[in-house]
Amino acid sequence: MAKWTTADIPDQSGRVAVITGANTGLGYETALALAAHGAHVVLAVRNLDKGKDAISRITAQSPQADVALQELDLTSLESVRAAARQLRSDHERIDLLINNAGVMYPPKSTTKDGFELQFGTNHLGHFAFTGLLLDRLLPVAGSRVVTVSSIGHRIRADIHFDDLQWEHSYNRVSAYGQAKLANLLFTYELQRRLASHGTTIAVAAHPGGSNTELMRHLPSWAATAYPVLAPIFQDAAMGALPQLRAATDPAVLGGQYYGPGGLGQTRGYPKIVGSSKKSHDADRQRRLWTVSEELTAVTYPV
Asked: What family is reported (predicted)?
């Protein structure tokens, strides 16, 4: 399917979709599309006022949209646990968990639990959130965990097990690369663990180059180049298509990775794409999983 779009999304009536960071950018576009196709969509967001505004915009476009709000701060494991408890109380089943929220290239800072902000938010927060909700997905045929990675998983990227929190030195690009590589290692290891259950699958996606709020922390060299590169970037609606396809296309298989099919995976319609050799390293996958369980104190039912 050369040009998969939101028009190809099957009817989502009766399905429950939880999307992190759904008040803006890729997450908002994902929520908008799923709500328009009949899903009950939960916007899991840090800022409730922005979340309420997003719901107003969604219902303005789709008056019949079934949309709810859940407070979630991925920089706080206490908040992650509280959000998961509430969602478990509200929903007997979850069909789609879309780990979309993220931060990119911030100055050196930490989460409320002392983790480096990018690793703590993009990976550890989602690792804990997924683990705490997984038993709501496991009984549901066709359920999926979709985690959003990035082209950045290839750029100066490795898992620095000797300094995961960048306490000895900090490079914002390398730290982002570590976090986005972690998203893929997590997806592939989760899929290996889910394979024997036969219901839930784990899939990854990336938006290519997209104009979203993530760009606000660009390093000075990148900020200088951005006006030149901006024309090759696509808008958030296009950038959201890979994660929407990963979430809804009936042909999707566990462990696949979706991204734009155009120039260097920076733009275009979504298709299956490849990821780095490091992302497929089973030893890295297992080691990161073990460390993540230790750091978050969340263990999985698979």
From this structure: Belongs to the short-chain dehydrogenases/reductases (SDR) family.
